[in-house]
# Entry
Amino acid sequence: MSKHTAHAHGAGHAAHDHGTGQAQGAGHDHGTGRALSAGHAHGHAHDTDDFDWGVMGTMLEQEAELSLPQYEAAARWIAGLPAAPQVRRVLDIGSGPGVITCLLAGVFPEAEVVAVDGTPALLERTRARAERNGLAGRVRTVRADLPRDLGTLDQADLIWAGNTLHHLGDQRGALAGFAALLRPGGTVALAEGGLTARYLPRDIGIGRPGLETRLEAIREDWFEDMRASLPDTRRETEDWRGLFAAVGLEPQGARSFLLDLPAPLGGVALDRAVADFTRRREVLTDLLTDEDVATLDRLLDPADPAGLRRRQDVFTLSVRTVHVARRARS
# Structure
């Protein structure tokens, strides 16, 4: 997989959640991307032979599990929208290891939920998670490369795409493909945008203050390069209401969901923060000043008193935004 293809249900193209392990994470997050975050483009046709999916799958699962409160709040908001039709079938597009797939099966207990992804190892994790959670009878998996295989999927009442659309070159065309898969009255939910995860105060006592702000600016340039390299890429103004309307869908609104884990972090949350800074160090090194590289090295040194593992001021604060539209009933 190229370094711009790994996303999991993550947070905004900041961390956009592919499945998040959505997906979905923190990296180009989004999550983010997976080069920056971890597994960015599940469900897209990319070379994944150079990824250790045993390690990556675990990372994506941890990212998605930490963000479950955000995703559950988003799913319950969608389920409670006025005049929402009964959901009998859900497509989780770019499902990653299936954390969000299984969440959706819980929120929509009458529905068959289909995890759609391009990586067999992640689909196997989805099946195993569904089995552990007693959902094997309602969760199934489909291997599909997007956007090529969109037309092979059957219709659904809800399409969830967690930080997936921005990994497709022609976002408008892909969204039109989603619209064609909706049953009358059906809903599409896009987790796109939000705010990149932050972990540290502006001044951390070492290096030049504002490290994360600089890393975020560099990631934005990296993200643009990623978009430019996608097949059939075209620039779109990220006016999701306008794009919904352009493909014949009725916008239903947008909401943002906060993840606020206060300092000091421990356990999996701290592991995730360390993993995110490690990815940034690996991917962005050539774009950073020597001073910032040195600061990152100290943060990642478990023996350094100023390192992430020993600090008491490490937190997690991120926002995921979900945009919703509906197909007309007639």
Observations:
- The two ends are 42 Å apart (CA to CA).
- DSSP finds ten helices and seven strands in the chain.
- Strands lie at 89-93, 112-117, 139-143, 156-162, 182-198, 250-261, 316-326.
- The chain has one domain: 1-197+234-259+319-330.
